[in-house]
Every structure is written in C-alpha cells, then in structure tokens.
C-alpha cells in the first residue's frame, strides 16, 4: 500500500515537471520571437535613417551644383565681351551686338541644359545611394506578392504613360530614355526603401483628414453608436475626426468646404523621385532684389538694374515658399507650418535661416522575419477564451511563419498612402543659408549655399504635398479625384466612382450638426452652468446621464464635453480626494465612483469639471524640464506633456 502511494506521488511530481518544462519551452520560443521582432525593428529604423541621409546628401550636392552653374552663367554674362568660348564664323546678317547676344544665349542655353540633366539624374543617384545605404545596414530586397520587383510598375509607367510621353524634352535635354534607364537599373538591383516622390494622384488635401481612411471609418462607427441608443454609449472622438467636430462649425460646412489640389501632381520637369523643386526663368533683377542683395554684400556695391542683361537662371519653384501654401491653404499654418517651424514637435522654433519648404528625403522600408511561434494573439480582451484569443498562423506553402516588421512606431502597412503628415519612415532635410542668417529662398536664384543635412523628428510632417512613391489607385484616391471636381456633396454633377459611394455617404453624415457632430461637440453646451451644478458632488456623474446630448436634449454635452473618468496609476493615492492641481495651481478634488474604486472624476482648483477634451491636472507629467514652444504642443515646464527635443542644428 505504501509503495503504491509513493508511485502515485512520484507520478504527480513527474506530471508537474512536464507541465513546467512545457511552460519554459513556450516562454523560450516566445522570447525568440520577441528578440527577432525587436532586432528587425531596430534594423529597419537604422536602414531608414541611413537611406534618408544618403538621399539628402545627393539632394544637397545637386542643389549646390545647380548653384555653381548659376554662378558660371553670371560670370559668363559679365565677361561676354571677352572671347573665352570658341565659336563658328559670325552670321554676316547680324550686327556685332546681335551676334554677341546670340552667342551668349547659346552658351547660357548649354549651361541650362546641364542644369536640367543635374535635376533629373542627381536625385536618382541619391535614390541608388539610399538603396545601398539600407542594404549596408542589413536589409535585403524583397519581391512583391505577385513575384514582381517593387516599383517595376513605375518603370512600366515611364515607358507607356502619356504623362511622360507628352514631354519629349526639357530645355533641349531628351530626358526620358536616360531617366528611364537609370530607374530601371536601380529597380532591377532590388528596392529596399521606398522614396518620397512628386507623382500623379498625390494631391494636397484640405482639410487634411479627408485623405485618411480612418476619418470615414470613425464617422461610420459613431453613426452606428448613435443609431444604437439615444443618448449613445460612445467611443472616443479624439481621432482624425476631432478637428472636423471641435474646430469646424455649421458655417464651415457650407458650399465647397474642401480643397483638393493636384498642382503638385503635374510632371515637375525634373526627377519625380526626391524632387529638388527647381525651374528656369529670366533673371528677375529689379530694385527690390538689388536691395536684398545689397544687404548681403556689406561694403560692396551691387550692380544697378540697367547694367545686367536678362539671363535664364535656375531658381526655386513656388513649392519652396511657405507663403505660397499660406495663401492657398487655410489650414497650412495650424496643421503644418507650426509643426515644422514653430516648436510643434521641437523644444524651440527652427532657426530663421532654415525656414523654407522645398525638398526633403524620406525613406520607408520593412523587413520580413520568420517566427518560431505558430500562434498569433487576436483581440485585446483578457476575458476572452483561449480559442478566441489565439489563432494558428497560416503557412500555406510550408515555409517559415513570416511577418513583415516596420519601424519602432508603426507598420508601413498601416500608413495611408495619401497622407502627408506622420509616416513610419525617416526624413532628412537639406540645410543651407545665405549670409547673416537669411534662408536660401531670400533670393530666388539657387546658389551653392547648402552645407549640411539632418534627420528630422519623424513626427514632423513630410514636405507639403509629397507622398511615398506608388502607382496604386485606391478607392480613396479615386474618390478624392472625383470630389476635387464637384461643388456639392448633395447636388453633384456626376456619380462617384464605383465602390466609393461609402466615402460620400460618410461626408454627408459629417455635415449634419444636430444629427451627428453635436454628439461629439455641442457648440450650444453651457459648461459654466454644468460646473456650477455638479462641482460639489461630481460623483453623481458616474450614473447621471441626463446632461448628455441627445435628440431630446439638444442643449446637452457632446462626448468631448462629458466629464472624463480617469484611473489611478499609483495605488498609494487610492481614496485621497484633495490633491495638487499641477496645471492651474491650488488644490483639485478627485471624486471616486466608490470607496474602493480607482476610477475618479476631477474638479480642478477653479471649480471646473475636467472633460474628455482635457488632461488630468492632478497628474504630474515629468518631462525632464525645458519650456515648450509656441506650436500646438504643450507649453510649460514639468507640469504637463512637453514637446520633444530635436536635432540641435535646426
């Protein structure tokens, strides 16, 4: 009897040991996958940065070479009376002055053709350098799902599309064959990083959220919530939809309230990849330009306007100038300029000499890794049963269980192709300045003044109107193209393209203030009366929904105006009601939903009930010190979320 009991006990120990070994084995396999994912993310991040910097370096060299040729043009013009160039016998029908002018035009034309060649081929060298930089940092080329090379379809477009066939030459340079051959050679070697490009179907969209699929998804989600109950139980309104609800009134939705501009999608007459943004024009040397030059020359004197003949210089195109965007897009300052230049994501504003738009080099890539684990987690509910939380990965061809990994912040698969703001790649900017801290665009003529490149914080937006090189035409692309030609969402001239009516329906819903937007933000809401009524007993708001907007309560609070429910992160503060107000000073009060609850509502030191549109003033946001900038980021020191530090050079 004793022997049997010992055997049973021995079997129990063995079973427990097997279970423990199985758990340890699963943990080891999981750690292998975690290590592989982290390693891939850092590899992709490093490759993106190296590629962006390599491309920006070639943008810098190309711009400086264009500037050097401009100086040669200027010198040749000043010395045109001296015979430095071999020439054929003069045309006897021309006067000596006419013959000299003709020879000068020919020489300037030859130099202009050299500049055109640089503007087409210089950025492509940067494109090739970006691929090599990424490969040197560990990334390898991949094939598309249909077993074609990435960007092979772009090569096909260069061969066949009327956009390129109709432009046979630019300033006497027959560009298409050399450009096509270079792109084809680079693509045939394998594409690792995708560049930014100024291509067709890449409009500047205002308001910018119209170019994001997430906007339409959020509209339809909120509509379903509103239809389910009144007042509804709503998800948050802090997504892409936020500015459409919070910052736009009924008047803003009257008439054609959108602007979809394809002007940057026109063929730029230079490289579409890593575009420099240049054009050619006769010298615009007037008294204003002369005065600007004089301030840069110090004690030296600038030539008078009458002393110089007209010369065709290579100049910055309009897309370098912030004023161009400011005059054409009403949201430029709020949604772009302040983020790039006014400490929106930097601690301090950008130095004045670097305040210009123009080119930047963007690089985006991803890496494929094989996972050891055969199961993937679905959903985020811990209460779900195991069968619903874990699903077996599909491996139809019997190879590795592969996953595509982007950067540390987001997967490139989740980045909308039309957006011009945050994307999961790396951005590098060309830096240059004239004397006395003036930006290069102070003078319209390109000069060799670009001496540096820098990575910029990835949360800073891409250069305005640029997009990642692609040739796909998504349903949203087609809808935006249609919408750009229409004057009304209701009395439209032609039907939207097949498969895009859902986008139109979503925007029609968005224009309905009382029936839709007021559920997010109600402009008629009386916040002062609400504070006066509930500030002394805010705990009632956990159950009292009578103040919320509904069809029968049109003066109620939208979701953003409802009292926000916060959750304690420090258990030592449980039950403590009187706490410091780090934003307004003084003492704020927390109202808990119950005596043992960690969920609370805040009434700040001014007697205001903190809403879903505001931060918790009772939390000390430690940022390491330093004041914020004047952009849309938070200001202040160590009392609220601060803006991010940026590269010291800019």
UniProtKB/TrEMBL annotation:
Record region (Disordered): 623-650
Record carries keyword Transmembrane: yes
Residues spanning the membrane: 12-32
Composition bias, Gly residues: 623-634
Keyword terms, alphabetized: Membrane, Transmembrane, Transmembrane helix
Protein name: Flp pilus-assembly TadE/G-like protein
């Amino acid at each position: 009897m004793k022997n049997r009991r010992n055997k049973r006990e021995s079997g129990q120990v063995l079973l427990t040991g097997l279970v423990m070994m199985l758990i340890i084995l699963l943990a080891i396999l999981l750690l292998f996958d975690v290590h592989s994912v982290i390693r891939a993310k850092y590899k992709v991040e490093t490759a993106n940065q190296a590629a962006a910097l390599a491309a920006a370096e070639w943008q810098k060299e190309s711009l400086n070479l264009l500037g050097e040729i401009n100086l040669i043009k200027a010198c040749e013009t000043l010395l045109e009376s001296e015979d430095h160039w071999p020439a054929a016998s003069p045309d006897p029908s021309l006067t000596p002055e006419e013959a000299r002018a003709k020879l000068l035009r020919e020489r300037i034309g030859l130099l202009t053709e050299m500049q055109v060649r640089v503007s087409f081929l210089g950025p492509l060298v940067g494109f090739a350098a970006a691929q090599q930089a990424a490969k040197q940092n560990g990334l390898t080329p991949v094939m598309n799902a249909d077993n074609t090379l990435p960007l092979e379809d772009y090569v096909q477009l260069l061969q066949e599309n009327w956009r390129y066939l109709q432009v046979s030459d630019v300033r006497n340079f027959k560009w298409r064959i050399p450009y096509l051959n270079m792109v084809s050679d680079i693509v045939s070697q394998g594409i690792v990083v995708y560049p930014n490009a100024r291509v067709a179907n890449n409009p500047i969209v205002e308001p910018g959220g119209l170019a994001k699929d997430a906007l339409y998804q959020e509209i339809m989600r909120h509509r379903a919530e509103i239809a389910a109950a009144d007042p509804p139980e709503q998800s948050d309104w802090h997504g892409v939809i936020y500015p459409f609800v919070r910052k736009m009134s009924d008047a803003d939705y009257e008439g054609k309230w959108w602007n979809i501009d394809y002007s940057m999608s026109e063929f730029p007459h230079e490289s579409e990849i890593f575009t420099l943004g240049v054009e050619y024009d006769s010298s615009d040397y007037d008294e204003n330009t002369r005065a600007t030059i004089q301030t840069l020359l110090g004690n030296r004197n600038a030539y008078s306007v009458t002393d110089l003949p007209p010369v065709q210089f290579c100049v910055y195109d309009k897309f370098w100038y912030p004023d161009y965007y400011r005059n054409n897009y009403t949201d430029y300052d709020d949604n772009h300029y302040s983020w790039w230049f006014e400490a929106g994501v930097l601690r301090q504003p950008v130095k004045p000499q670097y305040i210009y738009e123009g080119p930047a080099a963007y690089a985006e890539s991803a890496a494929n890794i094989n996972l050891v684990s055969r199961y993937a987690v679905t959903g985020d509910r811990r209460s779900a049963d195991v069968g619903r939380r874990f699903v077996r990965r599909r491996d139809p061809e019997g190879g590795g269980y592969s996953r595509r990994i982007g950067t540390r912040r987001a997967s490139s698969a989740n980045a909308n192709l039309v957006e011009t703001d945050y994307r999961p790649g790396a951005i590098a900017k060309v830096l240059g300045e004239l004397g006395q801290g003036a930006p290069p665009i102070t003078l319209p003529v390109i000069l060799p003044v670009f001496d540096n490149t820098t990575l910029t914080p990835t949360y800073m937006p891409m250069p305005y109107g640029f997009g990642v090189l692609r040739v796909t035409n998504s349903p949203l692309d087609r809808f935006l193209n249609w919408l750009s030609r229409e004057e009304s969402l209701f009395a439209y001239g032609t039907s939207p393209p097949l498969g895009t009516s859902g986008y139109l329906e979503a925007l029609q819903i968005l224009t309905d203030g009382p029936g839709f937007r007021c559920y997010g933000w109600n402009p008629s809401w009386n916040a002062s009366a609400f504070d006066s009524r509930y500030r002394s007993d805010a705990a009632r708001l956990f159950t009292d929904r009578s103040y919320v907007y509904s069809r029968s309560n049109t003066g109620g609070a939208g979701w953003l105006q409802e009292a926000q429910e916060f959750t304690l992160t420090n258990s030592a503060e449980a039950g403590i009601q009187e706490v410091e107000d780090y934003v307004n000073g003084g003492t704020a009060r927390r109202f808990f939903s119950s005596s043992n609850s960690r969920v609370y509502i805040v009434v700040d030191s001014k007697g205001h009930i903190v809403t879903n549109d505001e931060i918790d003033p009772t939390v000390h946001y430690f940022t390491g010190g330093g004041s914020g900038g004047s952009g849309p980021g938070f200001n202040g020191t160590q009392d609220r979320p601060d803006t991010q530090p940026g590269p010291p050079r800019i």
